[in-house]
Write a sequence for this structure.
């Protein structure tokens, strides 16, 4: 359990009021009193099955599946009317994934690795640690389960290490995955439609490390360059999700190409 859960009962009482936009008349008022119900330690049951097979010299394949069920989580239970606003051990979550991967190796530590993962993650929308990461939240929404914000349904990743002339080593990484889900909200921050029912655009990035090893006086150092998102693919991290806003549905905050130099000294 998060350590701050027990302190939730000492949070200030919350009052949610609505007024008529034209007359200024108070139309509704709901008051919440934070409370903590008797809590239990969360439980998780996980099963993993994995099969590995060498198909030929230097060629290996792996197939794996994971199932995880969690219970007695401690979400915030938001009532529809005034009264207690409890933290209770009523939450649950579910995770499934299927993975298939292959690796091909050559001499000189050269290799290529390719992996595909299909997964599903469903959990509590009002997970305490997520809601109160910054100590408090102005508006709390109805509880329930939905896709988790980190749920990427499909993911491909491939990377390799190759020896080039002049002692140069190149290691590219190519990743593609489904976009993370997000919720559409109205002007009062209430859900519009299914929570986490929308998705960001698919993420794609080509990263690369290129380096060369230099030796002097019995010491060695790798000097090279790191390139992130070499293709400058648009990978937004934020979205204007408020229905009716002028930029509603627009994605933003993508990071372009980043180039960094590095040096690794070996003793």
């Amino acid at each position: 359990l998060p350590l701050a859960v027990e302190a939730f009962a000492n949070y200030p009482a919350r009052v949610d009021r609505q007024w008529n936009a034209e007359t200024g008349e108070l139309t509704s008022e709901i008051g919440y009193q934070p409370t903590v119900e008797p809590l239990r330690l969360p439980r998780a049951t996980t099963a993993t099955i994995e099969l590995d097979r060498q198909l030929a010299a230097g060629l290996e394949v792996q197939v794996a599946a994971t199932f995880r069920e969690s219970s007695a989580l401690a979400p915030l239970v938001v009532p529809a009317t005034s009264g207690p606003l409890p933290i209770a051990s009523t939450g649950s979550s579910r995770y499934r994934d299927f993975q298939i991967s292959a690796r091909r190796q050559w001499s000189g530590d050269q290799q290529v690795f390719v992996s595909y993962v299909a997964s599903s993650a469903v959990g509590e929308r009002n997970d305490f640690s997520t809601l109160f990461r910054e100590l408090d939240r102005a508006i709390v929404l109805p509880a329930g389960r939905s896709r988790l914000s980190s749920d990427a349904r499909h993911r491909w990743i491939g990377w390799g290490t190759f020896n080039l002339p002049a002692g140069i080593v190149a290691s590219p990484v190519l990743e593609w995955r489904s976009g993370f889900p997000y919720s559409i909200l109205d002007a009062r921050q209430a859900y519009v439609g299914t929570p986490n029912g929308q998705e960001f655009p698919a993420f794609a990035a080509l990263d690369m490390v290129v380096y060369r090893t230099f030796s002097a006086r019995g010491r060695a150092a790798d000097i090279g360059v790191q390139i992130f998102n070499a293709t400058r693919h648009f990978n937004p991290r934020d979205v204007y999700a408020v229905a009716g806003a002028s930029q509603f549905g627009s994605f933003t905050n993508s990071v372009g190409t980043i180039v960094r130099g590095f040096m690794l000294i070996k003793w």
